[in-house]
Amino acid sequence: MTETPANPLILIVDDKPEAEKGRASVISNLGLRAIVKTPQEVTIEDIKDASVVAVDEYLEWGADSHPETLAFFPVDGLAVVRVLQRHAWANKVAPAFVLRSGELAKLGAALPAGIRESALATQHDLDWAFNKNDENESRRIVELAAATHSLREVFAGGADWDSGAGWLSLEESEWSKLAMAQVDACRPPDSSVADYTAGSSWLRWFTQRILPYPSFLLSDLHASLRLRLGLQSFNAVMESDSELARILRPFQYCGNLRDFCGRRWWRAGIELFIDSIVADADWDTSEADALTERISELHGDELDFIEEEHPVPVIDSDYVESQWVIDSSDAVRLSPDLWPVFADEPWASIEDVQDDATLKALVAKEDRARI
To answer: What pTM does this model have?
Structure first.
């Protein structure tokens, strides 16, 4: 692999470059380099230098901009990406290739809205698909470029791969070994595959298989559920300076792409904290009562706790999570397409399933008798 530049470069490929100069300026203000070129202007050196190549999906070609031979006419941005990917491969570099579109809903109409960006990327052999109308697009592209650059530095420099612990910024602690065991359980690319692809296989695994789903990293909703805290109370805790907030902050994921899909938490840290509370409680005290008592004591102010005996989060037919949890007695398990087998099982409310034929079709076989 070629040596990586000191500062990551984002190459924006668009048929209307003037309209994207503002985007490039925003990216530059966030600390990275950015250039905008038309598809015809892109060079091999651009691809070699770039950490991210971001291509517009819908391109308007001029009458003289391509040969009449069909094989040499890329019909859209996806086709351009494929050509540039092959040039990257031939030159032994591995930038992240992403698609940008203001019409992702149209492009991925058959895909669940809740995972559309990652699902489109998987479907079209991309690293990600961005919505150009997302106000956070520039920040997220910068995050992806920094993460890609970090991986390229590891593999281009010949450093020993530590199974991703360094890239994930997992510091040694009483729960870090458990955390890495949970990482391994999610089937990351092994070191030889990661090395062969200059880390791109690891990046795709992390963005497309880990961040969108509850596994060794948890969203605010899943972290709060395990603590039996209402989501609003959980957020209030993390905005405070209470003893509880101090204990929980080391469990927040602070590695690469930490804000790419929203805040995430190390499952191992949350679980160890819960286990310690239960272990210190009287033998005849339930886990729910032990958590309520100890968490209230640590925080001080009043908190809203989940009252359901067996709370579960639920999704709709677009894989969008509700911000509210329900008891498992009122829900059924799902087996949706694209959902990783190592991720927590998704649930849906029985009421929603009965009203939504698409959702009903996703119900796991073992729960179909309950609807």
So the answer is: 0.93
